[in-house]
Design goal:
Order of helices and strands: HHEEHEHEHEHHEHEHHHEHHHHEH
Number of domains: 2
Strand order of the largest sheet: 1-2-3-4-5-6-7
Shape: globular
CATH class of the largest domain: Alpha Beta
Helix content: 25-40%
Radius of gyration: 24 Å
Strand content: 5-15%
Oligomer: single chain
Number of strands: 9
CATH architecture of the largest domain: Alpha-Beta Barrel
Length: about 400
């Protein structure tokens, strides 16, 4: 086997890492090494781009330690039976790459995942050693996200939390049946147990100690998870129900959805279901509605015949069209909870509406200046000098809004 250069390894292992969706830096502790010595920061501006909830773009070096893997999961391009080019970084190479990229202002942090080679503990041990050396020897203060291996020992995962800002453990698929069928070497029970232990450890470390009265640093960005969408026959309704259980059970910062597309490798016979990237996008939108807009999982898909989200329109608009009796909403008088249900109004826009109406009444053009598309909002609100009248119940409303939004997107 030919010896690969670091550049060749980087090309292989950064490309292999693109299927890992769960990299985001929101929720990490604020550290600035300019004040404490060392190098790196979780703040400021600064190649994988991830977005925090406040809109900041975070650049991360996103790589696998190795794409060799002892597991043969049907949906994974790096499965043991897959005919892909393999590579493996050493701990020294990952540490040096991270520091070199940071010094050139290419990145603000590291997202490190890996295939499992030889054993979960050996692989996890090398990932932890990367994080330890960055923090202790290199004094790196930037963001670190480690994708942990649920079969690894509890001691290794606990040590990982001392150095990483966020840890994530993949649930793989929405259902236990899917995991057992498509990833038979992995055990859903082991995954859940590992996630539960991690939650308990995060909660334990969040309590101030008796001696120092300070919280111990342990994965301050919490834990997240990732599930593959479309590799099995689970409906969107089933996926969102699984996500709701995960959020409730493990206090997750985020569930990430990764659209499955048949890998250009003839050994995979899994079918392609629905346009995968658009389905992934709609699931993220529905997930957002559950987390920040007060929607329950059942009502998002209530009325759907097949348990699938409408790919042509966003889930909030789909809900509003099925529940026209809840509209129009008066932007000058309605409670925040009612405004959150209006298509086209985001949380920041609603906060600005509530702040503005304390001083004056808003007209339709005022709302239009605050939001992206007044065409989507107009049929569902009342404003000073504006009432939609029969527009809210118009039979062709869906088509009219869709055409307006498509036209706006051209510019």
């Amino acid at each position: 086997m030919a010896v690969l250069s670091v550049r060749e390894k980087l090309a292989i292992l950064s490309d292999a890492a693109k299927y890992d969706a769960s990299c985001a830096s929101s929720g990490s502790a604020k550290r600035d090494s300019l004040r404490s010595g060392g190098i790196g920061s979780t703040e400021g501006s600064g190649i994988c781009h991830s977005y925090a909830p406040d809109g900041r773009c975070i650049s991360l070096l996103k790589i696998l330690l190795t794409n060799f893997c002892i597991y043969d999961c049907s949906y994974c391009i790096n499965r043991s039976s897959s005919n892909v080019r393999r590579a493996r970084f050493s701990v020294d190479e990952v540490v040096k790459l991270t520091m070199d990229f940071y010094r050139r202002n290419y990145i603000e942090g590291l997202f490190l995942s890996s295939g499992v080679i030889r054993s979960p503990d050996e692989t996890m041990g090398e990932m932890v050693e990367v994080a330890r050396r960055l923090r202790i020897e290199e004094k790196f203060g930037g963001y670190i996200h480690l994708k942990t291996i649920p079969e690894a020992s509890a001691e290794l995962i606990e040590t990982a939390g001392l150095y990483a800002d966020r840890l994530s453990i993949n649930v793989e698929l929405p259902t236990d049946e899917g995991v057992k069928k498509l990833a038979p070497e992995k055990k859903p029970e082991t995954i859940r147990l590992s996630m539960a232990k991690l939650r308990r450890k995060i909660e334990e470390k969040a309590e101030p100690t008796l001696q120092s009265r300070r919280r111990e640093r342990f994965a301050p960005g919490g834990q997240s998870t990732q599930m593959i969408v479309g590799a099995d026959r689970t409906s969107d309704d089933g996926i969102l129900r699984a996500s709701a259980r995960l959020y409730g059970s493990y206090d997750l910062r985020r569930v990430y959805y990764s659209a499955f597309s048949p890998i250009p490798d003839s050994s995979s016979a899994l079918p392609l279901q629905k346009p995968p990237l658009m389905r992934e996008h709609r699931l993220y939108q529905a997930d957002w509605l559950m987390r920040f807009y007060g929607f329950s999982q059942p009502e998002i898909l209530a009325g759907s015949n097949d348990g699938m989200l409408d790919l042509a329109i966003d889930p909030k608009l789909a809900w509003a069209l099925r529940n026209r009796g809840r509209f129009p909403v008066d932007v000058n008088r309605a409670e925040r909870e009612a405004l959150l249900r209006v298509p086209g109004l985001g949380t920041k826009v609603i906060d600005r509406i509530i702040e503005t109406r304390r001083h004056r009444r808003l007209r339709l053009e005022d709302v239009g200046r605050l939001c992206h598309s007044v065409a989507k909002v107009r049929p569902f609100i009342i404003a000073e000098g504006w009432s939609p009248g029969a527009l809210t119940d118009k039979a062709g409303l869906r088509q009219a809004i869709t055409r307006s939004c498509e036209q706006l997107s051209l510019f």
